[in-house]
Specification:
This protein is of the alpha/beta class and about 325 residues long. About 40% of the residues lie in helices and about 10% in strands.
Amino acid sequence: MKYRRLGKSGLQVSEFSFGAWVTFGKQYGVDGAAELLATAYDAGVNFFDNAEGYEQGTAEQVMGDTLKKLGWSRDSYVVSTKVFWGGEKPTQKGLSRKHVFDACHAGLKRLGVDYLDLYFCHRPDLNTPIEETVRAMHDLITQGKVMYWGTSEWSAQQLTEAYGVARQHGLSPPTMEQPQYNLFVREKIESDYLPLYDLMGLGTTIWSPLASGMLTGKYNDGIPDDSRVNLPGYEWLKEMFESERGKDRLKKVKELAKVADEAGMPIHHMALLWCLENPNVSTVILGASRLSQLQDNLKALDSRKKLTPDVIAAIEKIVDNKPDGPQVFE
């Protein structure tokens, strides 16, 4: 395992990290979660991602109980949560000062920690002024309850505004963004955010590196019965796979699998390593429905040298979706 700075901050995060989405609180309780976290930690993973919206806080509770059971030293790992979807009432959602504070304290309690290393705004809130959210995050940092704050799936314009507000008023700017990034979803990381890596020193903790499992190749012949795509509440994912765009991507997955095979590695290892090739990616968040999946994904790091320039060129020829870069208006 290697480590990268989270943007321009001094925080070192493992190239592969582990996320609780879908699995914790839905598929796994403390015993299963402990097995997953311990396996990741022993392999060098030091960042564990969560959110108040994952199973309505249950994922945070499971992770917190698991961290207590494992008994790791608090200074040996990085834990995050996110604020946006806390409940149905108006004060239980969004990025108002009240909900940002309430969600932080609830997350601290469920995770069983005294502070959050990373605290993300899970989505932009068009009903709350960005300055209000920036000030709330800054205050949590000065109180020692949050080390770094960031965003997830914000636009480059919204991030720039948040950064500008912070600089204007002497507040803590966002340190990191958590966007989706994989061979089929590239625009934000490779184009929209391109000016922000230097301007803000923006770090990225990318999710869905395997495109919700599509880049594993296991959906090439249909959806397996034990897939997370068949879980209640994830019908949207199934529709995505069965759409025309989904079918077109599956065709490309079959071609990518041939490239990976010729390079001497499975397609999902190639897809994970491809994400790490981007120097603006701070960490790649892994998910896992089974321990064997996590163990297998971690082994991708053993194949770094197999992702040669020729292999990357073959990948680009198949996906044929490289962004042109940010638009500049004069």
